[in-house]
């Protein structure tokens, strides 16, 4: 069988470096130009003072990733604090239930703090310290980035200031409590709609006044340069581990790798390990919300246009006035009208494809994984699971799908209990 031959040829190679074309560690297809561009996407911020701060962060980043002390420290924290490598799990009952391909999970939900975001937050706070900064500043919507950043800041003795809309503060109370307990200072933002967009503006305003002492720490693989590069670099540990583990477990590469896409950090982390493998299909799954035919979705890649948001170019959903649209998803971590510039480019170059799953499919997948495997996934992650369940049915039992289980669903249980009839 051809797959067996592929298997043996792959296992004799060095898995860690085989598909990495640059000593730098990221595949060339997602590396920026000197102008911070990924094809026509991404870009640098124009504001002169901020531009200077961004250059300082970029130079600092390029230095530390070659620094042995930094690499050793990052490795120590990944192993002894986060609990890496996260395992690969063969979901046998879920696979049998779908009746087609074998579904595997990369268990980022088992990381300390329960999701993949800790991977880049540790990197960002370590970088801030190396740059001599005493504080990290960020915005948060659902609070997931805020919690991961507050965790890393507590660990490293760095001050942490989180800007959050007043509407989100009410909605996401458990995460607000977590951040407070971890020692973060929460800045409530009440102007405008009091949600994520206003929180971003407010955080940037504060940062502008504290450029010497603080660093802005973004929550996904997006924003102006150098953030997409930094976040994807720190998340690439997912794909690097997954490729080796999957080969060890099955003797071949997966046929498809699948991840949900909000801003795109967990997806770029997984994809990055397989960008040198043309046989592996990369699929990002966006929230179709109440349906692609309605106004209530956040399917940026599927229905968006090329535009600009928060200082960078990407696919974006715009409203009638040409402003970033207010979008909807059952998963607040996917609720963003833009997407990372690397995904925008991968789509245009046909190196990855982007599908979507509705709120209803997401809830179904959430319950299926809970009941069939005893794993309660985050609602964000459940979008990727929903797609995998759909795709598996049309594949043969000797084919495989590797899904990034980006986070656990403890945060979502009350919401789901309200929506789902458990007696059925
Ligand atoms: C934040 C979050 C996401 C979405 O963010 P990406 O940057 O697109 O990965 C997905 N899953 C979980 C569990 C999250 O917390």
Automatic annotation (TrEMBL):
List the InterPro entries: Trp_synth_b_CS (IPR006653), Trp_synth_beta (IPR006654), Trp_synth_beta/beta-like (IPR023026), TrpB-like_PALP (IPR001926), TrpB-like_PALP_sf (IPR036052)
The metabolic or biological pathway listed in the UniProt record of this protein is: Amino-acid biosynthesis; L-tryptophan biosynthesis; L-tryptophan from chorismate: step 5/5
Sites where N6-(pyridoxal phosphate)lysine occurs are at 117
Which metal ions or organic cofactors does this protein require, according to UniProt? pyridoxal 5'-phosphate
Write down the superkingdom of origin: Bacteria
Q: Cite a GO CC annotation.
A: cytoplasm
Alphabetized, the UniProt keywords read: Amino-acid biosynthesis, Aromatic amino acid biosynthesis, Lyase, Pyridoxal phosphate, Tryptophan biosynthesis
Which EC number(s) does UniProt give?
4.2.1.20
Show the NCBIfam families listed in the entry. trpB
Described by its record, this protein's role is as follows:
The beta subunit is responsible for the synthesis of L-tryptophan from indole and L-serine.
Listed under subunit, the entry gives: Tetramer of two alpha and two beta chains.
**Name listed for the protein in its UniProt record:** Tryptophan synthase beta chain
Organism from which the protein derives: Psychrobacter halodurans
Ranked from the top, the taxonomy reads: Bacteria, Pseudomonadati, Pseudomonadota, Gammaproteobacteria, Moraxellales
């Amino acid at each position: 069988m051809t797959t067996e031959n592929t298997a043996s040829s792959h296992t004799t190679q060095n898995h860690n470096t085989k598909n990495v074309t640059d000593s730098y560690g990221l595949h060339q297809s997602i590396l920026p130009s000197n102008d911070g561009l990924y094809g026509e996407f991404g870009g640098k911020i124009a504001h002169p003072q901020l531009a200077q701060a961004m250059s300082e962060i970029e130079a600092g980043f390029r230095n530390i990733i070659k620094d042995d002390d930094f690499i050793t420290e990052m490795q120590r924290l990944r192993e002894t604090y986060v609990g890496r490598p996260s395992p690969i799990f063969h979901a046998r009952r879920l696979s049998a239930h779908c009746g087609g391909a074998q579904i595997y999970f990369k268990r980022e939900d088992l990381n300390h703090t329960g999701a993949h975001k800790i991977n880049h937050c540790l990197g960002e706070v370590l970088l801030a310290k190396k740059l001599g900064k005493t504080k990290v500043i960020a915005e948060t919507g659902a609070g997931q980035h805020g919690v991961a950043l507050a965790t890393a800041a507590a660990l490293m003795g760095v001050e942490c200031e989180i800007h959050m809309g007043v509407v989100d503060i009410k909605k996401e109370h458990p995460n607000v409590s977590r951040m407070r307990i971890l020692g973060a200072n929460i800045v409530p933002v009440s102007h405008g709609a009091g949600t994520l967009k206003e929180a971003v503006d407010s955080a940037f305003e504060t940062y502008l006044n504290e450029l010497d002492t603080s660093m802005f720490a973004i929550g996904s693989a997006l924003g102006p340069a150098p953030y997409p590069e930094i976040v994807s670099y720190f998340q690439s540990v997912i794909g690097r581990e997954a490729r080796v583990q999957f080969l060890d477990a099955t003797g071949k590469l997966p046929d498809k790798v699948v991840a949900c896409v909000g801003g795109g950090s967990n997806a770029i982390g997984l994809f990055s390990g397989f960008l040198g493998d043309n046989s592996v299909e990369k699929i990002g799954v966006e929230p179709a919300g109440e349906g692609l035919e309605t106004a209530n979705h956040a399917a940026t890649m599927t229905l968006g246009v090329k535009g600009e948001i928060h200082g960078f170019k990407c696919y974006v959903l715009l409203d009638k006035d040409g402003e970033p649209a207010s979008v909807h998803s059952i998963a607040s971590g996917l609720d963003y009208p833009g997407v990372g510039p690397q995904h925008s480019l991968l789509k245009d170059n046909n190196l990855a494809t982007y599908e979507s799953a509705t709120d209803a499919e997401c809830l179904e997948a959430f319950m299926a994984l809970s009941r069939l495997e005893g794993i309660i996934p985050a609602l964000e992650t459940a979008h990727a699971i929903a797609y995998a369940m759909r795709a598996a049915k049309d594949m043969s039992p000797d084919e495989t799908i590797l899904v990034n289980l980006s986070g656990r669903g403890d945060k979502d249980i009350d919401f789901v209990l309200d929506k789902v009839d458990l007696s059925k």
